[in-house]
Amino acid sequence: MTDSNKIIINLALFGLTQSGKSSAGNILLGSTDFHSSFAPGSVTKDCSLGRSSHLHGFMRRAGQEVTLQVQVLDTPGCPHSRLSEDHVKQMVKEALARHFGQEGLHLALLVQRADVPLCGEAASSPVRLIQELLGQAWKNYTAILFTHAEKIEEAGFNEDEYLHEASDTLLTLLSSIQQRYIFQYKKGTSLNEQRIKILARLMEFIRENRYQVLTFK
Questions:
Q1: Alpha-helical segments (H) within the chain
Q2: pTM of the model
Q3: DSSP letter at 140?
Q4: What pLDDT digit, counting tens, does each position of 28-47 carry?
Q5: What is residue 181's predicted lDDT score, i.e. its pLDDT?
Q6: d(CA 128, CA 70)
């Protein structure tokens, strides 16, 4: 944050290969900064920072309109089809220090496909990466972004039913991070409507944290 009429929020994306991290990042930014495509292997090979344009009048605080700007760090999938976990960890560690070392990170977003169960050793890799990079406070600065949430409706579930049927691994994780989660749908709403809805929810999480941030060295 810079002044009383402008807020900058810093986010970092984590997740499995092909979970939709880069696509989610583009929605958050309202741009196409991050390359996103279907591929049989990992697409993102480097950390990349994107900055949104200013969202004027996004919210009000103390009777004043507040402008919002979003900074998003996209990271390689973990596990990666070409890079070792140690290499990815070191790369992300350096990127967090470089981009958010002083300003701090507001939230790490674990990007998880809603149509892929969170279970098994591979699925736990992004969570482990977040824990190792954010340290003991990771639970207070992590939220889950479920992509491809339209698949839930196609399967005949609503969000509550989906979570009721979720794996024990996912339910335990949600309990650890104080039920901070968001569903991202591709159907029924425009990209801008999706963006505003997701950002509003993220701001709720950030306010609950009293705008505190994690800094990195």
A1: 21-29, 85-100, 120-134, 150-154, 159-164, 168-176, 191-208
A2: 0.92
A3: G
A4: 999 988 876 665 656 667 89
A5: 98
A6: 25
